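pasting for ref
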Amino acid sequence: MLLLQKTKCVLPKSQQQCFFLFKSFHSANILKTPPRARSQAHNVGTHASNRWGSFQRIMPVSLQAINVRTMPRRPIPDRLARPYYAGDGSSSKWEPTLPIVTLDEIPSLRQAGQLAREILELGAKMCLPGVTTDEIDAVIHENIIAKGAYPSPLNYSGFPKSVCTSVNNVIAHGIPDDRALQDGDIINIDVTVYLNGYHGDTSATFLVGNVDSRGHELVKYTKECLQKAIAICGPGVPFSEIGEVICNHAESGGYSVSEELSGHGIGREFHSLPLIYHHRNHEEGIMEPGMAFTIEPVLCQGSPMGVMWPDNWTISTVDGGRSAQFEHMVLITNNGVEVLTD
C-alpha cells in the first residue's frame, strides 16, 4: 500500500542550491571546448583499436558554436497535450521541496513509465548497422505521438530532437543526426514521454552488431550497477547509498562513474528534486514513500570527466573511452520500491 495523503518534504539546505537551474544534468566541471586535435568529422572514419577496444571515436564536426534552437523540429499535432516548455523552449520549474506522489497520481505515473519502456524497446530494434540516429529519432517521434503522448525532450531548453542518442564515447545528450550506426558501436537511447500530464523516463545501452569484449563488459557492468542501486532502495534509505553501491560495483570492474549527470525527481515535472548522485557523496536526505525519481548511472572506461561540445548539449569523455548508461524510474513504496519502467 502506498502513501495516500499529499505532502511535501523540504529538501536539506545543502541540496537546495542545485547546479542545474538551466540544464538539469550538467555539472560545473565539464570542459566547455573540445581540444582542437579532436575536431574531425564525427560521421566518417573506421574502427580503430586503442587502449579502450575497437570502435569509432565520435567527434564534433566543427568547433564552431551551434545554435540548436534554430534547427528544425518534427511536427506535433495540435490535438496533443504538451508540457509548458514545448512552446517557449524553457526548462523545469525547480522548487526547493520534494514532491510526494499521491495514490490518485500513481496510475498516471505508471502509464507514462510503461509507455517510455515500450518506446525504448522499439528503439532497441533499430540499433542495427546502417541505421542513422536521426532515423531512430523519427520512428520514436511518430510512435510516441501515435500513443497520444508528447516526446518530452523536444524543445526542453531548446533541445531539437525527440530522443537522445549517445554513441560510443558520448556520455549523454547526443543529438540524433545522419551518422549511420556501425558494426561494433554501442548506443544509449534515452526516451522520455509526456502522457496525461506526467513524464515517463528510461534509457538503456544497446550493442550494434559485433561489439568487442570490452564493450560487452562495460555494458554489462553498467546494467548491473543500476540493478544493484534499485535493490537497496526503500523507506529510510539515505539517497547517498545509491552512489556508494554503484561505485563499489563499477570499481570492481575497473570503471569510473561519471559525475556529469544525476538522477532526478520526475512526475508532473520532467526534472525535479531529489537529485540522485551516482558517485560517492555525503548529501543529506532519505527516501520516503511516495517519492518518484530516476536512477541513471553512467560508467566510463577511463576518466569520468566530460567535454561539452559546441552544441552545448552533447557531452563526450575527455579521453575518448567509451561510456554506457542505463536508467529506470522508481517509486518508493511503504514496503520497498516499484520500478515504473520495467
